[in-house]
Input
Amino acid sequence: MAAERGARRLLGTSSFWLCCLLLLGRRAPGAAAARSGSPPQSPGSGVRTFTPFYFLVEPVDTLSSRGSSVILNCSAYSEPSPKIEWKKDGTFLNLVSDDRRQLLPDGSLFITNVVHAKHNKPDEGYYQCVATVENLGTIVSRTAKLTVASLPRFASQPEPSSVYAGNSAVLNCEVNADLVPFVRWEQNRQPLLLDDRVIKLPSGTLVISNVTERDGGLYRCVVESGGPPKYSDEAELKVLPDPEVTSNLVFLKQPSSLVRVIGQSAVLPCVALGLPTPTIRWMKNEEALDTESSERLVLLAGGSLEISDVTEDDAGTYFCIADNGNETIEAQAELTVQAQPEFLKQPTNIYAHESMDIIFECEVTGKPAPTVKWVKNGDMVIPSDYFKIVKEHNLQVLGLVKSDEGFYQCIAENDVGNAQAGAQLIILEHDVAIPTLPPTSLTSATTDHLAPATTGPLPSAPRDVVASLVSTRFIKLTWRTPASDPHGDNLTYSVFYTKEGIARERVENTSHPGEMQVTIQNLMPATVYIFRVMAQNKHGSGESSAPLRVETQPEVQLPGPAPNIRAYATSPTSITVTWETPLSGNGEIQNYKLYYMEKGTDKEQDVDVSSHSHTINGLKKYTEYSFRVVAYNKHGPGVSTQDVAVRTLSDVPSAAPQNLSLEVRNSKSIMIHWQPPPPATQNGQITGYKIRYRKASRKSDVTETLVTGTQLSQLIEGLDRGTEYNFRVAALTINGTGPATDWLSAETFESDLDETRVPDVPSSLHVRPLVTSIVVSWTPPENQNIVVRGYAIGYGIGSPHAQTIKVDYKQRYYTIENLDPSSHYVITLKAFNNVGEGIPLYESAVTRPHTDTSEVDLFVINAPYTPVPDPTPMMPPVGVQASILSHDTIRITWADNSLPKHQKITDSRYYTVRWKTNIPANTKYKNANATTLSYLVTGLKANTLYEFSVMVTKGRRSSTWSMTAHGTTFELVPTSPPKDVTVVSKEGKPRTIIVNWQPPSEANGKITGYIIYYSTDVNAEIHDWVIEPVVGNRLTHQIQELTLDTPYYFKIQARNSKGMGPMSEAVQFRTPKASGSAGKGSRLPDLGSDYKPPMSGSNSPHGSPTSPLDSNMLLVIIVSVGVITIVVVVIIAVFCTRRTTSHQKKKRAACKSVNGSHKYKGNSKDVKPPDLWIHHERLELKPIDKSPDPNPIMTDTPIPRNSQDITPVDNSMDSNIHQRRNSYRGHESEDSMSTLAGRRGMRPKMMMPFDSQPPQQSIRNTPSTDTMPASSSQTCCTDHQDPEGATSSSYLASSQEEDSGQSLPTAHVRPSHPLKSFAVPAIPPPGPPTYDPTLPSTPLLSQQALNHHLHSVKTASIGTLGRSRPPMPVVVPSAPDVQETTRMLEDSESSYEPDELTKEMAHLEGLMKDLNAITTA
Output
């Protein structure tokens, strides 16, 4: 019968094919062999079947008493019958010679006369049943705990008490939990019968509800645990008659937190006492419990709650609420529900060949989470290189050998209990095919062994097996096909390998037929391995290759993590860290590096340590730090330890509470409000606050009040009427009291008035209109017994509801300012208190017109009850500033003009700070009170603009809100990932995808970039994913060159200036399949839309690609044009030089004749008259480009012949010119030429139009020169150009000598004569010339190049020969205006004939004579 029951159980848990094999095996002749000890086999197949072997009954936890007998049940099923043995605390029991323990026929253990003493407890412990079948294997049962009740000892005993009739009584008798079943109660030394009214709680306590006179008497509890009974003390219970008066509610028994296992019962005690008699009700997690209709919830005597058959849903917080109509009290307790280990997936039987890898799967659940260990044939499996625990609970066996056969059991255990489940492993011969089972427990490396073999020739050994790549932890093997099959297209290969000296061999198979290489992973460094290769065809495995001996490369051995790292606080500012020497590592440890970091920061600090402990000093008080240690040897740093966190010890607060404020409630009480000290100064958990207060007149008499917990306000009552009090508050920790706030004063009211209704209407209202203001005065309501806290004044044109102003209750007048003249205003006045506003009083007034100045703002009100106006009404705070401290904190500071200069608050005023943000627009203001001139606003959002304002309140008077201050909190790393991440394929390009997303909801700052992670393995480490950075202003990105028909996973991470935010959830996208091929088996690369072909040159200005041919052609054209231009310019210059040689000779002769009285030596280059010459050696006249303007406006400045031609300029004109010049003032280039700024004289105005393009170069100008009356003497040698004129013209040289790519402002000058663009300098004033120190001086230029004969000069550009120059500054000098001397050029292409030039030279000779006269005077 037992065999049939075992077969039926196996049918219920195994698959159909396994049942068929089992039935065949039982009917086959091989069953006789199984019964004789050999495993059964199926006929003709050579495949052994799995043997049913399991426990029918397993031992369970048992409680026993001293001297009693105990049976631990155990029964196992197998064919043949198993041998049963017992273990106690892991050691086998010798039951043959034990007279108190004996093995029953079914395998159970029977213990008689249990022994239990204080120092001798041989029977108490953990028992396990072990079943063994010879030549088959061993299995072990779950572990059962035998507990023997301890010696009787009372934790608490009943005490005499009295109770009113109808109430409940509680008599304590608490013993150890294992003795509770042996506790009973006696009344008057007679056994007490329990019923619905009298119950015993699980702790042993007796509860009697609805007490009557019969319940009075002597009570005691009795413990009977196998020995003589032990009695507690007797206690008398007195029953008193009902006094018919009320009494306060109190708990006689409160519920306490409880832990129960699923299926057990839980009792939550709750007994209350009071008159009237209270009723008890229960709530769970804020929901009321219905104990009347529930089958599992029962209300016991006194109000205790019993929950039967506990489930996981019963876990939670339970509230016991006692209510007697006058008062309600409550108590709470937590119920924790635990669950024994339970198998979600049990191990299954496995067939395998030697050298294969297998996995036994085991999935368990329980609460707390169970731990799992594996047992093979009753012995613990110790993890090693070949036995590994994978995926938390599964057992992996690598490289099977014949001795691995047997029964494997998964044992799960937690605090509640343990459970076991097992499976059998059978290893078949290599020539026996594995039955076609679902290969759920075979690894991918061994599944090829499942194919059945057929008869035929087998392959020979593979040839030339070599290790083509040897690393520290992997080896790559290659070989050639066997000689029996040179092509080898249909051959598969198995590589067998093992460590040298170890018999256990492992196998790795090739991935597809014909492949002749394999990489063996997860090897050990510097270890010798033996490899051999075997080929397989459809007929089976062939010969094995000769063994190949290969040694892996040695690995640089770095130290492992230091074990047993511990950190503990030694003071409020120091922490000691200890550790031990690393267990791994090659070479002596040289030193350690201790890293530590404050929690919540990203700044890690380190210190070098040579020993195994170190104390870090100077830490913040009551702050959590994390520590880790890295060991160093000669190769460098090793593996870091895990972080350990510890908090420094607490200390007394180092700062006072913040924002202390006082609110006078009535004539005898004042409410105090405050906020905790700043978090960094609390130095521990704030356990309470200490309030000290005293009368202002008696400073030595101080009263002290303690406030526990986190309460931030306290009402101080019992004060004297109309008395000023001083208050201060200090914070408390478990270490003591911190510093207190400054004393703050407040005065109680003289009397208490009625505030149950709104005030009456004010008794009178008077208005006096002025031009832009109206003076409003009033008298209070006639009923003086109602509290008036202030008055509300409403006013507006035609309606009083446009504006409302509230003033203090003491105020009797108010001036409404900023009104419109001659306007009709309606004014209303209402008194208000905390209940609301009273009945309004209306008046109207018309403001006076602007012309009416007969009235002044001086008035006298003769109405009754009107006091003298307050000369100092409350003014709003000023200078409100917002100082940003962090991403969520802003400090607000302000000043109060109504305070003395030292800004010290000596009265009872307080300030109200309000703040809000405009995003979203409908946010409301938040308010807080302060009694100092600053307030710390916390809990703000990062990177958010806030506005702040402050008002002051003194007594019952308040100011208006101050002007607002604004502040934007600092940025913070994004706290949410990018959202709406989508991936789509690009049309026409299957290997390109487009990733789209939206910014994070909580960016906490400007997003500066994104990082896209993608991988084909969603479980890969993040550092193995491919990274694509994207700039912050983009929300889409293309990724190219992906593999077709492959699933990819994408994550996105946002970045701002503070760091990286969290990653988004992985989004999967499978690339499409290939739609076709390009060419013969090849494909064109997917270049994407952003692909640009390679270029030898640069792109065009617009970014379009330019071919190498176009780029070279453009370069040739530019060079050719430049060369031709230079040649033309040189030819023209040579031609012009020859034409002007004769004129230069005449000019030099004329100058020598005029200056004959002076003995100048040398040629004309040596002539240096006083500061009037301009050296033109390096100047030439060159044509420049035409202005882009088709009709440029040019100004011709002819040279005046005498002083009468020069007319002084008007001052206003000079001022305008000066202002226009200054508008072009800027930085001067390095080579720019400036005028001789110190030169004073008359200069004609020179107008120079600019191109229409905006200037690209700053323009320097010179100060305006003084205007002087003209002298009758005339200057000589007009070629001495005015210095400023030279500067003006010199600018023209730059426009062509600069890079042609630049667009610069150019002054186009088209004079009517080649020399008319030179101004005539006036006579220098006596005395040394003065120079502007801010302007560089330009050396005087010679006159040599002046008389070049020019032909068809279009525009003049004066530059320096031989080098490139930057653009010159154009100077528009301030000079006397020349009337009727300027005209527009009628022909911009005019040319000059030689005879005109000759006439002009003759005129210059006359000027030279005048100059000679000046120099000789």
The chain has ten helices and 85 strands. The first strand starts at residue 53 and ends at 57. The radius of gyration is 53 Å. The chain has a mean pLDDT of 75.
